[in-house]
Amino acid sequence: IRTRSNVPILFLSSRNADADKILAMTSGGDEYIEKPFSNEVLIAKIKAILRRTYEYTITEKEYLTSEIYYDYDTNRFHVQQDSIELTKSEKKIMELLLKNRGKIITREEIAFELWQTDEFVSDTSLSVLVSRLRHKLSVLAGKKEIVQTKKGLGYLIP
Questions:
Q1: Which among 51, 57, 69, 142 has most CB atoms closer than 10 A?
Q2: Considering the entire predicted model, what is its pTM?
């Protein structure tokens, strides 16, 4: 299973020897529960393992195509051997769009993410940031449009 996935693995067993528990955990298991057990304990352990596995992790790389990906750790876009670093504002825009991939994000949502205010910030400032981000991505991706505009609605990454 571990060669194909990072899905949580929970062992349920009537065996209670330490050697069995160690073998289960070193074989890729995330949790070990001995029989008999109460349903409440089982549910609590399942919830904990799911929380640890999915809620507290960020995907290190977000692939847009088989060749183009964004690396959250280094704040860089990569295409084959080339890469480009994003500014702090470009990073915020990109991560908001990636987190909501396939969904249109309004200019207002992006502005709030950038400046944390409902007050009007120059519309031109946002347009310039998106334009610079697109230009950087086009240098790497060529004709592939990464950030798409939905006229009158906002932006998205399909």
A1: 69
A2: 0.60
